[in-house]
Amino acid sequence: MNTEDELHRLAAIVKFSADGIVGMTLNGTINEWNQGAEQIYGRSADAVRGTNFLNLIPPDRRAEIGAFLDQIQRGEHVDAFETRRVRRDGTTLHLSTSISP
């Protein structure tokens, strides 16, 4: 299998994963949003691309993002962090998240 085929295969795995996979810049701008994230958050990729990820975080949990960004900028990972997020309909999600640079 050549590199291009492998990249297409991996992209399909991410796109169709039931796990929510979100890509964003270090300032929190969402630039990738897979189908799993659409199902979990109740928001389409088109609706969230270009918006700030803070919009999905309850106000009482926003401070945790600063610490994560510091870890990511050092090249570290955050694994299985229990947190809360907000769905489009306003309900709160309790989830475990992992963050990688």
Question: Can you describe what's shown?
Answer:
By secondary structure, this protein is of the alpha+beta class. Helices cover 36% and strands 24% of the residues. It contains four helices and four strands. The strands form two sheets. The chain has a two-stranded antiparallel sheet with strand order 1-2. A hairpin with a 5-residue loop joins strand 1 (22-24) and strand 2 (30-33). The longest helix is centred in the first third of the chain and has 14 residues, at 3-16. The model has no long low-confidence stretch (mean pLDDT 91).
Core attributes:
two-stranded antiparallel ribbon, alpha+beta, globular, 101 residues
Summarize this, please?
With 101 residues, the chain is an alpha+beta fold. The protein has four helices and four strands; from the N terminus they run H-E-E-H-H-H-E-E.
- Helix/strand/pairing category: alpha+beta
Spans of at least 5 consecutive residues whose pLDDT stays below 50 are none
Mean pLDDT: 91
SS element count, helices: 4
How are the strands ordered across the major sheet? 1-2
Give the radius of gyration: 14 Å
The amount of beta strand, in percent, is: 15-25%
The proportion of residues forming helix, as a percent range, comes to 25-40%
Topology as a string of helices (H) and strands (E): HEEHHHEE
Report, as a whole number of angstroms, the end-to-end distance: 27 Å
List the helices and strands and how they pair.
Layout: H1 3-16, E1 22-24, E2 30-33, H2 35-41, H3 45-48, H4 63-73, E3 78-86, E4 92-99
Antiparallel strand pairs: 1-2, 3-4
